[in-house]
Design goal:
Elements (H helix, E strand, L loop, with lengths): L1 H18 L47 E2 L47 H7 L8 E2 L2 E4 L5 E5 L1 E2 L4 E2 L4 E7 L7 E8 L8 E2 L2 E2 L4 E5 L9 E9 L5 E9 L4 E5 L10 H11 L12 H9 L4 E9 L3 H11 L5 E5 L9 H18 L3 E7 L2 H9 L7 E4 L9 E3 L2 H9 L16
Parallel strand pairs: 3-13, 14-15, 14-17, 15-16, 17-18, 18-19
Antiparallel strand pairs: 1-8, 2-4, 4-11, 5-6, 7-8, 7-12, 9-10, 12-13
Helix pairs in contact: 1-3, 4-8, 6-7
């Protein structure tokens, strides 16, 4: 029912926003990292697709790492994010080059579901809407992945079913390496892990030593064994001190917060809606990316809009970066304790785990201003578009074309982000 609850909540957001003259925005509060050591691997590399393993198991063996067959028929590619931005229009000095690209391809046959009701109840509700939050972490810190697997209008969880985990070496052209097969969780099975409540259909996985990724942007794919549907996201490992720029989406890159409601309604009713974009917004973000700053797109949208949100960024021509949506309904509430707290805590999490510096921020709502101030982002580089521009010492933006020279005049990043290779 989360789709329907969120649609009602989002509608309420618009009413409150209009009544308060844009005095409210979107946000949430994530829990603190209360997880312990989840390295419960049995010391074997899992390549047998019939393996019955825990969703939090970590592989400790370095033997027999498996790779996906790069020569397989690309018509089998089920990843919803295997799209590459047209690099001909970008500054290739910041783009990692290699040929030919090797998109993820599911190989081999699907396997039987563990439970009869998965096939006859869960998957019949509609297409899979699997997702994961992009991860930004400093080299030497734990590399933790969380996948969410669900189907249909009601976002029904895929519980206790097998999922195989992959990453790509030397992206976007290298081989895909398997990290074994793991079972999704049941509702409440793991309690709270890394600040995320286990609501079922989750994979919590910390990369073991033999799989730890170096500095760079590593594509992650989680393949459901029963139907070869895929969750796709990115692990971004950075040098400590890497500089980033955070951007809100709705009302900041899009022309209004109402685009969230329209996008949510379209996702519920299998419709199509293309949120309207502020002219010139991609050029501004590209000006930062070209100087070595890592774009981080943070939004109060529910996480079931992960695919639609990233695809919109791709289609509109924004540079590749980390994308983060809410994990709970409470995080999307347009209040100080809702979306403002959610955004502040997420930024602080990146500041801690990635040891990153947020050099600038873009938003539109007072909750954006509150979040950025709470995360100690300089007000002189907190850029606000719309009616709240200039509030609390922020810098007002009248239009992105007018603002572009300001962004272009910013210095090169002193510690640049890993080179990007487009959305992948």
């Amino acid at each position: 029912m989360r789709h329907l609850i969120l649609l009602l909540a989002a509608s309420f957001v618009l009413v409150v926003t209009a009544a308060c003259n844009d005095s409210s925005g979107s946000g949430n509060g994530t829990g603190s990292d209360t997880s312990g050591d989840l390295n419960s691997g049995d010391g074997t590399t899992l390549t047998d697709t019939s393996a019955d393993t825990s969703a939090v198991e970590v592989i400790d063996s370095t033997d027999d790492l498996t790779t996906a067959d790069a020569s397989a028929d690309t018509s089998v590619d089920t990843s919803s994010f295997d799209v590459a931005q047209d690099l001909e229009e970008t500054d290739t000095s910041t783009v990692a080059e290699c040929q030919p690209r090797n998109p993820f391809v599911a190989t081999g046959a699907t396997t039987a579901w563990r439970h009869w009701d998965t096939e006859w109840i869960v998957t019949l509700q509609g297409d899979g809407n699997h997702r994961g939050q992009d991860v930004v972490v400093a080299a030497g810190q734990p590399q933790r992945l969380i996948g969410k697997f669900a189907y249909g209008l009601l976002d029904d969880d895929l519980e206790d079913e097998d999922v195989e985990l992959f990453y790509q070496v030397d992206p976007p052209c290298g081989d895909w390496v398997s990290m074994g097969i793991h079972a999704t969780t049941t509702d409440g099975q793991m309690g709270t892990v890394w600040g995320i409540a286990d609501d079922g259909g989750r994979i919590f996985f910390e990369l073991p030593a033999q799989h730890v990724r170096p500095v760079g942007r590593t594509p992650i794919r989680m393949l459901v064994q029963g139907d070869h549907s895929v969750a796709a996201f990115t692990l971004i490992v950075v040098e400590p001190g890497t500089q980033a720029v955070v951007c809100d989406i709705d009302g900041t890159l899009t022309t209004g917060d109402s685009e969230l409601i329209l996008d949510l309604a379209a996702s519920i009713y299998n419709g199509s809606h293309v949120p309207e974009m502020y002219p010139g917004a991609p050029d501004v973000v590209w000006s930062w990316s070209d100087k070595g700053y890592l774009p981080i797109y943070v939004t109060g949208r529910p996480d079931m809009l992960r695919e639609r949100s990233q695809q919109w960024l791709v289609d509109m021509g924004f540079p590749a970066g980390a994308v983060h949506l809410t994990d709970t309904n409470a995080q999307a509430l347009p209040t100080s304790g809702g979306v403002a707290t959610y955004k502040r805590e997420f930024i602080q999490k990146v500041q801690t785990e990635a040891q990153a510096t947020f050099y600038a921020a873009y938003g539109n709502a007072t909750t954006d201003i509150e979040a950025y101030e709470g995360a100690s982002i300089d007000k002189a580089r907190t850029f606000i578009i719309g009616t709240n521009g200039g509030t609390s010492g922020t810098v007002a933006i009248n239009s992105y074309p007018e603002h572009l020279p300001t962004a272009q005049a910013m210095p090169m990043a002193t510690t640049p982000a890993p080179p990007e290779y487009g959305w992948w």
